[in-house]
């Protein structure tokens, strides 16, 4: 196939170019700058043909333009799906990306509660509240329930317990409890220290099945890019929960347009690369799921039989230059640069190198634990005063 005197390139209207003093065009944007490197290496003239994503018209996307022979190649990265491979050709894969979702993490609860889960807290409190009854009715101890409860709580906090003349089985029971109290205190201290160092903020949904169930209950929302092929993929998926998720997004016209749509009760499904880019300013506030919906191989679409993809002269092929630029790490460098520019534009990020001291919010868990300790100590003091006034012997 004979080559034309210039390469026709389909590019979106958002492409930004500027003229240099020598009459050359400088490109901005990831795909544009990448292709600019290749075209300068080819040393061939080219023509930029813009397209506008719309619901009608002849130029709705680069695929239509390439099929209608209005363009030879496109800047845009496309997923190499089976259906597209029948209509157009592709430059060999130079990037892979998986489709997943991002959701905002929940606001931090009181930190000291994170040391144990709910079931452990229930079992621990049940043991502490029931042990005084066991001591009173099983061994007939002379201490009251409140007095025994205070002593048991004190043993958990490392305080000694009062002893009395009693059978050996009573002392064995006390010894077992002291071992349990010591072990419990060590576990809580270790877990509490680690949580204060690295706070834990987990979302309620961590995979697509949980997300689909949450959306079905009408208390969660899911957003997807309006022109994404994920709609067809989800609706016709073999798994029922993914079908429900796709149909819900289509039914409610929930299309992703701004980062604020990623919230504690709303998720955005997109490529991991895009999600990491738009959440990188405050990445500690967002959760990107490890559940992969689909792994896509991305490449540049081009016209079938395009002469510059492969040819007799390997130094004069588009495929050769694309591979060299990618393998040399230049595409990765451009990706990082453009990701940072987009991040600043989306979030208004301003670099602030001033070190900030710890705030009360950072240590609220420690303060709450401290106040609880003071409250328990005051309660013990009041109980001892009351029991002394009633003539109850205390140590």
TrEMBL record:
The keyword Transmembrane applies. InterPro entries: Insect_Ionotropic_Sensory_Rcpt. It is found in: Cell membrane. SUPFAM superfamilies: Periplasmic binding protein-like II (SSF53850). GO terms for cellular component: plasma membrane. The keyword Amino-acid biosynthesis does not apply. It is a multi-pass membrane protein. The chain crosses the membrane at residues 118-139, 176-196, 363-387. Keywords: Cell membrane, Glycoprotein, Membrane, Receptor, Transmembrane, Transmembrane helix. This is Ionotropic receptor.
């Amino acid at each position: 196939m004979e080559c034309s005197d210039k390469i026709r390139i389909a590019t979106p209207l958002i492409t930004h170019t500027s003229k240099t003093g020598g009459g050359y065009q400088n490109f901005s944007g990831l795909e544009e700058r990448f292709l600019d490197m290749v075209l300068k290496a080819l040393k061939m003239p080219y023509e930029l043909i813009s397209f506008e994503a719309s619901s009608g018209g002849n130029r709705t996307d680069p695929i239509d333009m390439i099929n209608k022979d209005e363009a030879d190649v496109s800047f845009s990265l496309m997923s190499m799906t089976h259906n597209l491979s029948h209509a157009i050709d592709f430059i060999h894969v130079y990037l892979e990306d998986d489709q997943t979702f991002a959701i905002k993490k929940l606001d931090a609860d009181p930190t000291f509660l994170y040391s144990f889960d709910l079931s452990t807290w229930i079992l621990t409190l049940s043991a502490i509240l029931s042990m005084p009854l066991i001591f009173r009715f099983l061994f007939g101890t002379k201490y009251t329930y409140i007095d025994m409860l205070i002593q048991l709580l004190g043993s958990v906090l490392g305080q000694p317990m009062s002893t009395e003349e009693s059978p050996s089985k009573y002392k064995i029971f006390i010894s077992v409890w002291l071992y349990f109290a010591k072990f419990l205190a060590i576990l809580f201290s270790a877990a509490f220290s680690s949580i204060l160092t690295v706070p834990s903020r987990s979302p309620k949904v961590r995979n697509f099945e949980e997300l689909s169930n949450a959306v079905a209950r009408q208390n969660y929302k899911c957003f997807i890019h309006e022109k994404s092929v994920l709609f067809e993929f989800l609706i016709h998926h073999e798994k029922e929960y993914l079908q429900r998720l796709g149909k819900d997004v289509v039914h409610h016209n929930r299309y992703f347009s701004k980062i604020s749509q990623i919230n504690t009760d709303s998720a955005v499904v997109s490529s991991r690369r895009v999600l990491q880019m738009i959440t990188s300013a405050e990445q500690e506030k967002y959760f990107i799921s490890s559940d992969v919906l689909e792994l896509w191989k991305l490449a540049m679409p081009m016209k079938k039989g395009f002469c510059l993809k492969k040819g007799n002269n390997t130094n004069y092929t588009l495929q050769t230059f694309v591979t060299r630029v990618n393998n040399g790490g230049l595409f990765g460098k451009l990706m990082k640069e453009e990701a940072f520019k987009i991040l600043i534009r989306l979030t208004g990020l301003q670099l602030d190198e001033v070190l900030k001291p710890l705030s009360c919010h950072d240590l609220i868990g420690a303060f709450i634990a401290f106040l609880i300790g003071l409250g328990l100590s005051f309660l013990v003091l009041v109980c001892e005063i009351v029991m002394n006034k009633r003539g109850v012997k205390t140590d």
